[in-house]
Amino acid sequence: MAQLPQYAIIVAGGSGSRMQRDTPKQFLEVAGKPVLMHTIERFYKYNPAIRLIVVLPQEQLNTWRELCRKHTFKLFHMTVPGGATRFGSVKNGLDAVMGEGLVAVHDGVRPFVETETIKAAFEAAEQQGSAVVAVSPKDSIRELTESGSRAVPRAKYKLVQTPQCFRASILRKAYEQPEQEHFTDDASVVESTGEKITLVEGSYRNIKITTPEDLILAEAFASQDLQG
Ligand SMILES: Nc1ccn([C@@H]2O[C@H](COP(=O)(O)OP(=O)(O)OP(=O)(O)O)[C@@H](O)[C@H]2O)c(=O)n1
Ligand SMILES: C[C@](O)(CO)[C@H](O)COP(=O)(O)O
User: Which SUPFAM superfamilies does this chain map to (predicted)?
Assistant: First the structure.
């Protein structure tokens, strides 16, 4: 059977409000290079033939071009303007996916995703139609109730990461529906069309750079990676 083409939609269309910096967090430097370049390199390392679609805020497209020039960043990728929400950005990225294939949606601000994780997600999506990377919580979990809160069994929960991989036809159908408030990731969008979500083991290093202290962790991981 011919192998399906592999795409990665790397969503970097957000403003990074929780990071509280003027520069969008996907452009902040870690180990001397913008976060987003690290992320793109991870997918290229997994498969140099992967079709990379990078979604950026419309008003940052020129800045990104400048950054690529400054850092002599040559890895081929298509750029697409983002939407007002992550849902809108994924939808715009999906317009650049042609025909059938396997599509990984990945946060541009998760630069430490490992080759094994990407590989496992694509393999599971090829077999099951969907594959979502997740890890077990390390802390105890409490559910908020009207009277306060109560303990819930931690073993029943997973923390969801990206990549989230799907057959292109499944993802396209899901993103045709109107956006809903509970859509926080691609799995929630796809699940609402009745599709089953397959979970794949993720990694605690696959952090989403969200708030200022995450940058300290990111520098530590990058320095560890550089030491090999
Ligand atoms: N309109 C949007 C909003 C988010 N994202 C992307 O989705 C990923 C996960 O979102 P999040 O961490 O929430 O990023 P921001 O929306 O940028 O951050 P914040 O919520 O703090 O403003 C990020 O790579 C972000 O760039 C996107 O492509 N388009
Ligand atoms: C997609 C995601 O990274 C999975 O954990 C997460 O849902 C993004 O959420 P955010 O509120 O946009 O940071």
Answer: Nucleotide-diphospho-sugar transferases
